[in-house]
Model the fold of this input.
Amino acid sequence: MNKITKLFVVVASSLLMSVAAVAGELSVTGSAKASYLVNGGSGNNDDKGIGISNELKFAASGELDNGYSWSYHMELDPNGGGTTDADDSSLVINTNGLGTIGIFDSEGGLSTELGWGIGALGTGIDYANTMGASGTNAALNWGYDVSSYPNLQYHLPADVLPLGLGVKVGYAPNTGDGDSNDFKNSGGANTAGVDGDSLIQYQVTAAPIDGLKVGADYAGFEGETGNADQEQSGGNVYAQYAMGNFKVGYMQGFTEKGKSTYANGDGSSFDSYEYDAIGIEFALNDAVTLSYSTEEHEAKDKGQIADTETTRTTVTRTMEADVFQISYNIGGATVGLFHVDTDNSDFTAGKNETKTIASIAMEF
Done:
């Protein structure tokens, strides 16, 4: 870990040796989306809802007098309840052949769980999450991502490796630090425990033949204190192949929470997740796209091994979801219909949930 930290320092120092900048350019892009959502299924008390959201991205770029180029962006994102964050910011410097180094705040995700990329409107159930959002059912089974924390990254130059290989590494020095940090942020206090106090993540992608994309990532927490029954880590692999109007995708992943000791194994506190997804997408013509995907997410709650036993008690709960999507591009706007049917939603046994979303989106 010390070698990796020193590498970041050396690369960053080299970038500061000659940094007189030419005046940059500023651009504003974004989207405006409106939706009508209908909930259904057993154990689901939600009804219907209408929503409008927007996302504005302010980006600037320029060149340095040593031949390097730089880019900066920040986003205005709406939250529930009408509040807005100025977050998802980054400052990236391209070293013109030596790779790219970046400083990211709530940005720069390296997780590849959505790399399989099947969905006329959005990848799988990520478009309308039915995996749970709080407590023991939190959607940790998506894996970990360095973008959850302020982080530093280094990317190898494009085309330097064969088969379209791309390699990126990210390091979050303080997982207790918050987001939307201003200049000279002092960092949040972080008492290292079983889940550590820092995170390093690796990503590898490739395009070995025409139409094929593959990739993987691994995230591991560091700086743990005390003994642990399970270290905190996660990773994903994916493949996508496109041929003509068809596209197919597949992925697998896992997430393990840091545990000093396992609990009772009664299904009240999940310790690890394994998941996979597969889907197909078809472009009917230049305007209409259809897709279908199915996902299986398995959560495990492990217990202690009793003195007189050789195996531990484990409760396993499996959630399955089928997703149907259709999009219609009418020139400058996309009209869509999304439907997901989920069994054991939120990893709750017997809870079936459906979501149907009609939407319209404009990009600008």
Remarks:
- The chain has a mean pLDDT of 84.
- The helical segments are 2-15.
- DSSP finds one helix and 16 strands in the chain.
- The two ends are 42 Å apart (CA to CA).
